[in-house]
Amino acid sequence: MRTKQRSSALKKMKTGIDGFDLICQGGLPRGRTTLVSGTAGSAKTIFAAQFLSIGIRRHKETGVFVTFEETPADIKSNMLGFGWDIEKWQREGKWAFVDASPEPGQETIEIGSYDLGALLARLEHAVKKVGASRVALDSLGAIFSQFTSVATLRHEMLRIVWALKRMGVTAVLTAERTQEYGEIARYGIEEFVADNVIILRNVLEEEKRRRTVEILKFRGTSHQKGEYPFTVVPAEGIIAIPLSAMELKQKSSTVRVSSGNSELDEMCGGGFFRDSIILVSGATGTGKTLLVTQFIAGGARNQEKCLLLAFEESREQLFRNATGWGMDFAKMEREGYLKVICEYPEVMGLEDHLIKMKRDIAKFKPTRLAVDSLSALERVSTEKGFREFVIGLTSFTKHEEIAGMFTSTTPTLLGGTSITEAHISTITDSIVLLRYVEMYGEMRRGLTVLKMRGSKHDKNIREFSINCEGIHIGRPFRDVSGILSGNLTHFRPEEIERVADLFSEEEEVALSTKS
Amino acid sequence: MNKYRLKLYVTGQTPRAERAIANMRHICEVELGGQYDLIIIDVLEDPQLAEDEKILATPTLVKELPAPLRRLIGDLSDNEKVLLGLDIVAASPAQTPQGGNK
Asked: What is the DSSP string of A420-475?
């Protein structure tokens, strides 16, 4: 008996909820009841309805929805927004409701002992009627307000959970909790459905709502641990973002692509790798957007598809600036090699941005992607959320083997790093720094390739200028140090020669003589 | 047409169901003087009826007539409370007329 249960416990049922099955390592335990607990507004009902709707749409599995709180009519109209036509499924015999919602104005008097035999009979009847393999019960707390005897209800819920097991259906049972971090659910419901517990959270952090899902336990089977962000998308429902569940198995290409600037290519040892992530960091006005424009235009010129996601400037601004540097974005877009999407970071949460970006990438299938700027997106999220976003985006672009150029704005004019860099620098393959260099009362611009994974690169900090053709990289700064830290020290030329002799490196000499 | 139309929903032949049926029959005979229709519904046999009526608990007594519609749940083991719940003025002399008022 025991061993039989064990072997069946290993089987899982795909929920079909994007990303969630990865966190579950396959889905919900088949033939069991899983408690989904969450505070008000934590998307419990959506989770429950989505579980059934995906079963119907993708797996030809019918479902029964037991509603304790909202009326079937309300659920139907609410879920229509996600494109789930429950009315139609009801007609087709794929979805059945068991309506256990309270009836307003109806007086019920309790006299003597009772059980929930009628509810159980209705549930079994509905499961038989549609041949259901999925059952959702939402939300349990509401039934505790309909009856007074908590002891009876707890006993009856246990009976219902047993009956679900006997019928062999996979069930989702939602329950309320009063705090985000506290007891699992009200009325100690977890005690009788303790096999599997999932918690949905909707935490207010720094005035921003952050939704996460956590699998607290799956008895007898494995799952990912910890909280994972998720979001609710119109026309889709819940989408989870399984960060650490993602695998680090991208291929690595040795094919080089042009940065769109031959001088920068040379500094990088012949261009960026085709599937690498390049971070461009610099203060405002140092030329980040220009570098992005050149990168994109360079790709489009070679008839590669390029996607530019802009969060700081409008289309008109970007197109006008590109024209100023002799690049015709409008023509590139007409020819289908370029797609520019501009958006304010504030229009949605970061999780939604990530999902939308992935969609845009999957739809347009670019070989080059530029995000200008990544740090603008910092504004709409907490630090933790931002880190997850950056990891999610970079791993996705690498997985898709896209060359990605992301820009980051440093908060100070001289020197400095930003939060973006702190999160992203270890993930990126290349880092290009653009810095202001104050020289005797004049602001000049310096560029250096700080990191170039898997390749030799020029280690000089070179001066660059911007003309009508874009960035023009010149000689290294020889008589000044401390550019990156923002604390400039100027040297006399003879001192530099002495230092250069001390640390002579072949490649450096080779490169500096070239320029 | 009888004055009282009552439906009693029960689950199978459990002691609780038997008790509720016996209690209700007794009240009907003693208090309603034959002026009633009592329909007993086993939800295991007719789950759709329970679904249509949105019955959760068993036993549930539904008083359809006279209005207002009223539901009593439990094994109806307290005679006096049942009468109160059904707005029946007790016929037994032990009770004052006010006792049965709403």
From this structure: HHHHHTTT-SEEEEEEEEEETTEEEEEEEEEEETTS------EEEEEETTEEEEEE
A146, A111 in Cβ contact below 8 A? Answer: no
Beta bridge mates, A176: A38
Q: Which amino acid is at A75?
A: I
Q: Which of A79, A29, A73 is nearest to A54 (CA)?
A: A79
- Per the listing, tokens 């040379």 go with A266
User: For strand B36-42 and strand B4-10, is the pairing parallel, antiparallel, or unpaired?
Assistant: parallel
* Digit-coded pLDDT (tens) for B52-75: 989 999 999 998 888 888 899 999
A106 within 8 A of A141, measured Cβ to Cβ: no
Cβ-Cβ contacts under 8 Å between A and B: the total is: 99
Per-residue burial over A218-233, b if 16 or more Cβ lie within 10 Å, else e, is beebebeeebbbbbbb
Partners of B54 on chain A (C-beta within 8 Å) are 99-100, 103
Note if the bond before B66 is cis, omega within 30 degrees: yes
Asked if A345 and A377 touch (Cβ cutoff 8 Å), the reply is yes
Give the chain B residue nearest A98 (alpha carbons).
B51
Instruction: Please state, in angstroms and rounded to a whole number, the distance separating the CA atoms of residues A30 and A14.
Output: 9
Tell me whether the omega of the peptide bond preceding residue B68 falls within 30 degrees of 0, making it cis. yes
pLDDT band at A416; cut points 50, 70, 90: low
**A418 has a pLDDT exceeding 60:** yes
* Catalytic status, residue A69: yes
Residue A288 buriedness (CB in 10 A; 0-12 / 13-18 / 19+): buried
Task: Give residue for tokens 């990544």.
Answer: A374
Instruction: Report pLDDT digits (tens) over A95-132.
Output: 999 999 988 777 788 998 999 999 999 999 999 999 99
Please give the distance of CA A282 from its chain centroid, rounded to a whole number. 25
**A66 vs A173: CA distance, rounded Å:** 9
The ipTM of this complex is 0.86
Question: Cis peptide before A53, with omega less than 30 degrees from 0?
Answer: no
As given in the structure block, the two tokens for residue A408 are: 């980051």
Q: Report chain A residues whose CB lies below 8 A from the CB of B58.
A: 114-118
Backbone angles phi, psi at A2, to 5 degrees: -60, -50
Q: What is the CA radius of gyration of chain A?
A: 29
A92 assigned to active site:
no
Q: How many CB atoms lie within 10 A of CB B63?
A: 19
